Amino acid sequence: MRARHEREREFRRESIIEATEQLLNEKTFESITMDDIAMRSDFSKASIYQYFKNKEELIIAVFARILRTECHLIEERCLLETDPIQAMRNYIKIQFESIHRNPWSPKVIATFPFRDYHAENCLSDLYNQKKKLITGIIQRGQTEGIFIISDLDIFTNMLLSASVGFANYFSTRMSSDIQSPEIEMFISTIIKGITKGEQ
Amino acid sequence: MRARHEREREFRRESIIEATEQLLNEKTFESITMDDIAMRSDFSKASIYQYFKNKEELIIAVFARILRTECHLIEERCLLETDPIQAMRNYIKIQFESIHRNPWSPKVIATFPFRDYHAENCLSDLYNQKKKLITGIIQRGQTEGIFIISDLDIFTNMLLSASVGFANYFSTRMSSDIQSPEIEMFISTIIKGITKGEQ
Amino acid sequence: MRARHEREREFRRESIIEATEQLLNEKTFESITMDDIAMRSDFSKASIYQYFKNKEELIIAVFARILRTECHLIEERCLLETDPIQAMRNYIKIQFESIHRNPWSPKVIATFPFRDYHAENCLSDLYNQKKKLITGIIQRGQTEGIFIISDLDIFTNMLLSASVGFANYFSTRMSSDIQSPEIEMFISTIIKGITKGEQ
Amino acid sequence: MRARHEREREFRRESIIEATEQLLNEKTFESITMDDIAMRSDFSKASIYQYFKNKEELIIAVFARILRTECHLIEERCLLETDPIQAMRNYIKIQFESIHRNPWSPKVIATFPFRDYHAENCLSDLYNQKKKLITGIIQRGQTEGIFIISDLDIFTNMLLSASVGFANYFSTRMSSDIQSPEIEMFISTIIKGITKGEQ
DNA sequence: GATGAATGAGACTTCATTCAT
DNA sequence: AATGAATGAAGTCTCATTCAT
Q1: What ranges are recorded for DNA binding (chains A, B, C, D) (predicted)?
Q2: Does the beta-carbon distance from A190 to B185 stay under 8 Å?
Q3: How confident is the model over D93-128, as pLDDT tens digits?
Q4: More confidently predicted of B96 and D12
Q5: Which CATH number fits domain D59-194: 1.10.357.10, 3.40.50.150, 1.10.1740.10, 3.40.50.720?
């Protein structure tokens, strides 16, 4: 049957992605060579090209996986949450956890050529999906009169970028304890900043 | 006279730095070659090595210049400002302007090997100097009972990283108009988040 | 089968070594470029780096081969020889022949950084092996009361260096006829110098 | 007066030569850069080219000085000596001392392109002069019936090359004490080898 | 499908030498 | 005469990618 074939192929793709993720914890994507990936994934260099057209497609796959995971988590822990403030708290925490798991991700995104990032590859779709989820949370908060009113798109972008910015900072320089009060402080500041009135 | 020689040398160093900055608006530092820099700066490749020991020293010089400029601006527009809130607003604006001028800077910092960045080269000194200036602003705000109380260092790091994070996002994806209301919104959110009580 | 792969790889390594040896007959190792070697060995420059980590490893391999050959020859033509004088004659001849085949070898050794030569690479081992063989010959001569008595190590070094010194001289400046009477004269002088009494 | 001018120029040439000699004690001639020499000699790199046409001429000057010194010493300590054996002993000692003073000299000669060495530059003249002096010693020894009879030129070359070969070996690997018994052994062996009969 | 081998293109860096002051 | 500056030419090495088995 073709199905098993397909499943095995997918499995091998994943091993390569995982090897790459491991390596990204150790050095820049630019400085990781196909040899490194081959070594780590226990495939030959040439074999990798049977699963990914080139280095770029590989990194895209890596990020797609992360974004997909983030989306799942947001759906699970934010969309079902009735309190918008708590939903927002949860999103920020998810963002932290994600960057905590893959501290290199903001760095790599930062260097990833933008044109491609926003164009033909699946990344932009996933990225928009994630944004849409966050937008949903904000919208609910605004509708319920809890969050301040302002342009939705801008609001979302602001939250996303500030969260990622701080999480990145946090993950590279401070204790990597994800429960630390520093994070709570950031969350509170943001929540305070975006909620109406006294809170 | 020695002095003129010295001045001329410094001037040529600056041209190379400027050429590099220009190129950084077009592509990653990693993907910029010494040939590119030579071409753009109208020096021969070999000449560049008379002014910078290697590519790394060059990028360090580029960043040192940016940090120095930022420090000067903060001193001018924040330290003299008596109102802490206004001082803080000004700092965030300066950060935006800086990233607006050099949109690549967060990206490049992101890929710059961190060990070195925080160690023996002059960058760490400059970076700490900048942090100290911001800490000063916050401290004043806290002393005057305007800003919320919390660990100074964490407070500073949070502000710095969130601002850079958002400014980076802003500069690469939205209209590059520095007067846009989006920025005002970010600033307000942050200010609201860090000031005590009603405001 | 793995074995054939291995053999083929070894064969290709040898071609590169041979190309290098050829070139060494034409110019200094320092002045031979990887391009030269690539050209001569009919590999691409990059390919060479699959067989030798760098230029230094290549030269080490070249010398290892020579030393190995010398050791084999000494074993064959000296150790089996019962007459110590004849054994010694044979060694000196072997040394001449070797330098006659690879006239550049003393020159290259001369410029080769000594630390490495006497340290972690396989060369020092081979070199000591060769010395041990010569020491063996001398020792036998001394035991049998034919050679003069003196410190073994010094004796060995003297013979080695004087032979190499003269062979080098001979090969670079005189007719390269290996049968020439000049060589016979050197051999006689040395033999006369190291044998006891009348001879 | 022109004379002082000339003398000063000669003096500056000598400083550069001396700087080069110093450096040769530390690294290969090929690896010494004109910058090194400039630094060490306290001239600017460009200035050196006013005293030597190029790097090659400089190294030639270095060797010319050494050969000239050797010739002087041979004249002083060998030609005046009436006993040929003692004269020969003295020559070998001079050779040792010379190489002891400039241990790099055989190495550098070894790598020096031979064509030039034997052609238009002054080195060949000096070299021949040195050879002629040694030939003189041998000739006297033969005339007086002390040394064995054989072709003069070959005899000379053999002595020269074997002495240089061993002295080189000695200077790089053993204790650098010039009085050591090892040297005496080499000298005795050679003397024994070239003198007639019982000795 | 898997992989050992091969490589073109290109990066950084060095250095002897010349030029202009 | 002296020298800071400039550079062409060259060298070593790396890497993503393709090919042949």
Answers
A1: 33-52
A2: no
A3: 998 889 888 888 887 776 666 444 444 567 888 888
A4: D12
A5: 1.10.357.10
